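sorry for the late reply, my laptop died twice this morning and i had to redo everyting from scratch. anyway the thing you sent over, i finally got around to it. pasting the sequence first so we're on the same page, its 245 residues, then the predicted structure underneath. double check i copied it right bc i was rushing
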Amino acid sequence: MKKLFAVVLALALCCLLLPSLAESPDLTGTWYLNRTQIEGKKVFLVENDFIMLEIAADNTFTMSSSMYAETKSGTAKVENGVLTLTAGEETTSFVIEGDELKYDIGTQVLYLSRTPGETMPLPVFAPAEKAEDFNGTWLPVAQVAYGFYVEMDEETRGTVGTLTIENGKITVQTGAVEGLSVDPSVYEGTFSDGMLLASDNTLFPSEMGLSLREDGSLFYDVALKMSEELTMETTTIFVRAEAEK
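ok and here's the structure:
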């Protein structure tokens, strides 16, 4: 009887231990950035290869991004529902949530999945015939940077300010910062290949390109050269002030 009780007890303990002894989820294969949020707001992708993660059966990984030229590689480990990637002294941890890998960095949350995320199609370039086609007052509505499309709220629009163009002369009036007024920046644009081009060397060398789009919007591209190795590229999307009314 005692022997039978011991066997039953052992079987019961095995049943209790089964969840903890279950195999880790199979994460081998390719993972893509599917969606992301910044400060709780949905952010659209303009390219679906912004982040691509490859996990091999031998628990090694490679991770590439359109944001960086280099590809990271190292080892992958799953423990307590967390995927940890180690490349040299750098570690990155993803929480496994169902069919997604969640990377939370506070103000921004990235979700990787087996399928690429939907992308936001950007309006097609519509070459202007002359510099005067840009004339008018323009208001910011969105920004594109590092493969993300972010719609602006009213507060952000006020900080970015307005864009006024008159016969090639570009005036950028940013919003007040902590109650302090900011003097406008004025550039003399050059009309070339259907665009307005300008440059600035006040703080860092920067090249600006303004282009009209088929939907009536204006793209304000800025390439800011921070150093010999680093150039920051951003696009601010504007619409005519009268179109916002």
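Confidence is low (pLDDT under 50) at residues 1-22.
thats about all i looked at so far, will dig more tmrw
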